[in-house]
Design goal:
single chain; 193 residues; Translation Initiation Factor IF3; Hypothetical Protein Ychn, Chain: A; 2 domains; 6 helices; 9 strands
Length: 193
């Protein structure tokens, strides 16, 4: 089994390295830092039908064994094309104008999603949008309910790191730019707020 060392790599380099290695080798052992890199690589592999086992090898470092007899060329995308509606939220405010009004509008929008007939497949939070999924957000309960209804809630790992909020994430999971790009490109409809 091929071993690749992805420790100390910035997002999305670990996922891209694993993607390329899986295309060549089919099975891998990946050395990773704890946190977002481990979560992102594990999710990437699982979404493509691979088995993933994790073992902590030292403080803050993990080895992920990725195995499968699935043909990588037939399982290369995590979602089918036209997989649904994706909301891309890049701010904790909705619209232009006074920040206080923008925060209120965003809060009302997210709460209103619970009452709509058609739910998004995923909601992606980037830039200051990640503040909606972290400690102190007014919409955590609504997002948790959406998650319970089957809506995928994902926050940018790099953004969480940038704002020092990685440990403050309260709803959903983390994502990286490769997964974000795949989500957006495979969606039947993308709505940016």
């Amino acid at each position: 089994m091929k071993i690749i060392d992805c420790r100390n790599m910035a997002c999305p380099a670990p996922v891209i390295s694993v993607k390329k290695a899986l295309e060549e080798h089919g099975e891998l052992q990946v050395l990773l830092d704890n946190g977002a890199p481990r979560e992102n690589v594990g999710r990437f592999a699982r979404n493509r039908g691979f088995q993933v086992s994790e073992e902590q090898i030292e403080t803050g470092a993990w080895a992920l064994s990725i195995t499968s007899d699935v043909n990588i060329t037939t399982s290369c995308t995590s979602r089918d094309l036209n997989s649904g509606r994706v909301l891309l939220i890049t701010s904790n405010c909705l619209g232009e104008g006074p920040e206080e009004l923008g925060r209120l509008l965003m809060k009302n929008f997210i709460h209103t999603l619970l009452e709509t007939r058609d739910q998004p497949t995923s909601i992606l939070f980037l830039n200051s949008g990640i503040f909606l999924t972290t400690d102190g957000s007014d919409v955590l309960e609504a997002l948790e309910k959406l998650k319970g209804m089957g809506v995928e809630i994902l926050s940018c790992g790099l953004c969480l790191d940038f704002f020092g909020c990685k440990e403050k994430l309260r709803v959903g999971g983390t994502t990286n730019m490769l997964s974000t790009a795949e989500n957006l490109l495979s969606a039947a409809q993308v709505i940016k707020l």
